[in-house]
Amino acid sequence: MDRPNVGVAVVGLLVAVAATLPAPSWQQQAPNKLISCPSGSGKGFDKWVVMNQEEYVEKKALHTMATADEIGGNKLDANLTSAEDGKVTWVIDPKGKESDTTFTTITAALEKVPEGNNKRVILDLKPGTEFREKIFLNLSKPFITFKSDPMNPAVIAWNDTAATRGKDGKPVGTVGSTTVAIESDYFMAHGVVFKNDAPLAKPGAEGGQAVALRLFGTKAAIYNCTIDGGQDTLYDHKGLHYIKDSLIRGSVDFIFGFGRSYYDGCTILSVTKEVSVLTAQQRSKTIEGALESGFSFMNCSIGGEGQIYLGRAWGESSRVVYLYTDMSKEVVPVGWDGWNIAKPESSGIYYGEFKCTGPGSDAKKRVGWALDLTEDQAKPFMGTHYIYGDSWILPPPDADAE
Ligand SMILES: *[C@@H]1O[C@H](CO)[C@@H](O)[C@H](O)[C@H]1NC(C)=O
Ligand SMILES: *[C@@H]1O[C@H](CO)[C@@H](O)[C@H](O)[C@H]1NC(C)=O
Ligand SMILES: *[C@@H]1O[C@H](CO)[C@@H](O)[C@H](O)[C@H]1NC(C)=O
Ligand SMILES: *[C@@H]1O[C@H](CO)[C@@H](O)[C@H](O)[C@H]1NC(C)=O
Ligand SMILES: *[C@@H]1O[C@H](CO)[C@@H](O)[C@H](O)[C@H]1NC(C)=O
CA 182, CA 178: separation in Å to the nearest integer? Predict the structure, then answer.
């Protein structure tokens, strides 16, 4: 990713927005210090880039996002079809009797999934149970489903933050703070609460990022789930994602990353009384595959506390649209923020709204470079075709089937 231009103009911009937007947590210096020390003004941002993107350097190939051609357009995904034909269900119950198909922890069940797994494995999480586990699903284990009951969901919770010390004594960082990390493809969840219950960080506090769910695999579908946290709740990291009828709660940059994702019928709530930033979508010309990325919110509702920004740009081509979405009065009139981007009007940022409703939706008061979309402009984002869904989106497993 390009280093931001931290010339005088940008320093001025930072000062101007500082009155309303919290300094990002990685920006430790106060704005007035930025002016007196211009050579160091990029430090906080650079630090954040290092924290969040060092993997890109290590595993560059992994970050390439498949294009429509590679995915096969709307042809049904043959790998997925065969995986569904052989599906099995395992029960996860802390009080259950362990067997080949019953486990007391999610971690134990995932260890049993073979590498290169090619059959759908549904983990039936006992409704109403809290699983205090930190989960990492390796990319070698695709086709995993977490299923519980939307009316009485299982909760998966942990409480690490970016500042939590790992085994090596160093802070684990944003990625490492994640409660449930999914790196494999074809993940599904239905009726589950993903939670990071670390105490809510003060806006701008160092190391306050506390991810509840990180989606790094492609073709993931999340139904009737709750993704619950504060700063940086949902790391929509990479890949094609379908998030439906779910509740997402957070404070600063709480849906972020370079996923190409469709949020359908979701409720999105700010949990801070101060400034809240709903998205930090990352799209950049300099990260392989990132130009394919962007978040589309359809038929969602936005509310909660504080002053809510719809998004701020992580990368010079950040892309977010809201369609038919209800916005409460807490959504600030300007709507969007360019963050570190010097010329948001010409950088490639794509922020738009289409037929949104509610007191926070008045597109006329938005920053000049945000778009009030026409129907033709909105159409590419309106429907699961945006995430090539015809080839891979399946309905949630029937909650009453087993
Ligand atoms: C299907 O699986 C094979 C072998 O794992 C892989 O090479 C191929 O890319 C997969 N196809 C899709 C569409 O993911
Ligand atoms: C994923 O599993 C493979 C095979 O066991 C292993 O080599 C790799 O280190 C694992 N990845 C992570 C990030 O743990
Ligand atoms: C799950 O989603 C469906 C819509 O697909 C909705 O009718 C239902 O109320 C949801 N259930 C819960 C418990 O949120
Ligand atoms: C995290 O949760 C554990 C209990 O699971 C608790 O002992 C610990 O104090 C919590 N840490 C913080 C920082 O809240
Ligand atoms: C929009 O969401 C509501 C539930 O919040 C649902 O009843 C309605 O069918 C959805 N409309 C469309 C067009 O998807």
Answer: 10
Rounded distance, CA 44 to CA 50, Å? 10
350 belongs to a structural domain:
yes
Residue 159 falls within a domain, yes or no?
A: yes
Question: Would you say 227 and 263 are in contact if contact means Cβ atoms under 8 Å apart?
Answer: no
Q: What are phi and psi of 36, to 5 degrees?
A: -75, -15
Whether 186 contacts 217, CB under 8 Å:
yes
Residue 21 falls inside a structural domain: no
Based on the residue annotation, tell me whether 253 is a catalytic residue of this protein. yes
Domains in the chain, number: 1
CA dist 284 and 288 (Å) reads: 8
Task: Say if ligand 4 is within 6 A of residue 164 CB.
Answer: no
Domain at 365, CATH number: 2.160.20.10
Cα(159)–Cα(342) distance, integer angstroms: 36
Residue at 326 is within a domain:
yes
The β-bridge relationship of strands 336-337 and 307-309 is unpaired
**Domain extent for 307:** 78-391
Helix and strand counts by DSSP (H, E) for the chain: 8, 30
Counting ligands in written order, the one closest to the CA of 73 is: 1
How many angstroms is it from 200 CA to the middle of ligand 3?
28
pTM comes to 0.86
Instruction: Tell me the pLDDT of the chain (402 aa) as tens digits.
Output: 222 322 222 222 333 333 345 444 333 222 222 222 222 233 444 444 444 444 444 444 445 566 555 665 667 788 999 999 999 999 999 999 999 999 999 999 999 999 999 999 999 999 999 999 999 999 999 999 999 999 999 999 999 999 999 999 999 999 999 999 999 999 999 999 999 999 988 766 778 899 999 999 999 999 999 999 998 999 999 999 999 999 999 998 999 999 999 999 999 999 999 999 999 998 887 776 677 899 999 999 999 999 999 999 988 889 999 999 999 999 999 999 988 888 888 888 999 999 999 999 987 889 999 999 999 999 999 999 999 998 899 999 874 444
**CA–CA–CA angle 235, 237, 238 (5° rounding):** 155
Which-ligand-closest: CA of 245? 3
Q: How many CB atoms lie within 10 A of CB 172?
A: 19
